[in-house]
Design brief:
Elements: H1 3-26, H2 36-49, H3 53-83, H4 85-100, H5 103-114, H6 118-141, H7 146-154, H8 159-197, H9 202-211, H10 215-252
Helix pairs in contact: 2-10, 3-4, 3-6, 3-8, 3-9, 5-6, 5-8, 6-8, 8-9, 8-10, 9-10
């Protein structure tokens, strides 16, 4: 463990101890700010009793389904817009318009269309996380060096060959950066969707805890969401490193 990680870990525990001490000695109401020990106790109890696992599973499922759908559509549309400039000029204003509308405002419409449940949450999640991959795909594919594109053209490479062998490898770092952003936004979208639709999920549990004025449970749910987000983000980091390493290995063969 390097010094930066050690410093970060020490800072984390120091803030936790300060929080615990301040809550304990200032007699602040747990309704306003629960002690970390109480939050961790509620979190552990929820995991041990099995109360939280169905909600964690529901949020993780909605996040991953929305992420896969949103990134797949974002990548496909990004490739189309990058490859066909007239199409990009026509569709880009509509793509931007789809992003400036608050997704929370679209929730009631999606409920009317798809009903309460997983489908509405997945659609909201996909709509939130598809734009980063679309934007990064367009930028990444257009970042291929012009001299290399000219070389492919001189060698008689088809549009598909140029895309597959030049543009996608050249734009892969940017595309994967969009994936990292999308997975974080996917979790945000899933939680927001659960705020609206209710039912199962960590977002719905936060609304239920709010109705009971249970701040300790709300903080415990915040921790669960944070840990899930960090886990998903780290998995995308591992996937990115593996893909980039595989690309460099293939280039060296």
């Amino acid at each position: 463990m390097n010094s930066t990680r050690i410093t970060s870990t020490v800072l984390f525990f120091a803030l936790g101890f300060l929080w615990e001490g301040w809550v304990t000695f200032s007699n602040v109401s747990s309704l306003l700010l629960p002690a970390p020990s109480a939050v961790l106790s509620v979190l552990w109890q929820g995991l041990y009793d099995g109360f939280l696992w169905p909600h964690i599973k529901a949020t993780a499922t909605a996040t991953l389904l929305g992420f896969v759908l949103g990134t797949s559509v974002g990548f496909a549309i990004g490739v189309a817009l990058a490859e066909f400039a007239p199409l990009r000029r026509v569709l880009w204003p509509y793509v931007l318009a789809s992003q400036v509308i608050p997704k929370l405002a679209l929730g009631p419409i999606f409920i009317v269309w798809f009903g309460f449940g997983l489908t509405s949450i997945v659609v909201i999640t996909a709509l939130i996380c598809f734009f980063p991959l679309l934007e990064n795909t367009v930028t990444g594919l257009r970042s291929a060096p012009r001299d290399q594109r000219d070389l492919f053209r001189m060698l008689g490479a088809s549009r598909l060959q140029t895309l597959w062998r030049l543009k996608i490898p050249a734009g892969l770092p940017l595309i994967l950066s969009g994936v990292r952003i999308a997975i974080v936004l996917a979790l945000v979208g899933a939680v927001v969707g659960e705020f609206i639709t209710g039912g199962k999920g960590l977002g719905a549990s936060i609304i239920a805890a709010q109705s009971m004025m249970d701040s300790t449970l709300m903080f415990a749910l915040f921790i669960a969401i944070t840990v899930m987000g960090l886990l998903f983000y780290q998995l995308t980091i591992f996937a990115e490193r593996w893909l980039l390493r595989s690309r460099h290995t293939g280039d060296n063969l």
